[in-house]
Amino acid sequence: FAERINAFAASHWKEFSTQMYFDxxxxxxxxxxxxxxxxxxxxxxxxLLRDAAIMVIKVKRLELRKDFADKxxxxxxxxxx
Length: 81
Fold this sequence. Notes:
By secondary structure, the protein is mainly alpha-helical. The protein contains two helices and no strands.
């Protein structure tokens, strides 16, 4: 895909540019199209990791509250006996 775009741009580069950036392998178009996508994917991964960390914290807090309530209930039952 990038090679075709690069080939088209290489044949018409004088219409929209002052320098020839476009090689036969499609590197320029690949970089121009690929780098923003990679950056967006990197941000998505960061946000997903942040959400996962927040979820782990919530679950652990609930687990600790449940353990504390169980210990409190067990201590009250031992006092009654």
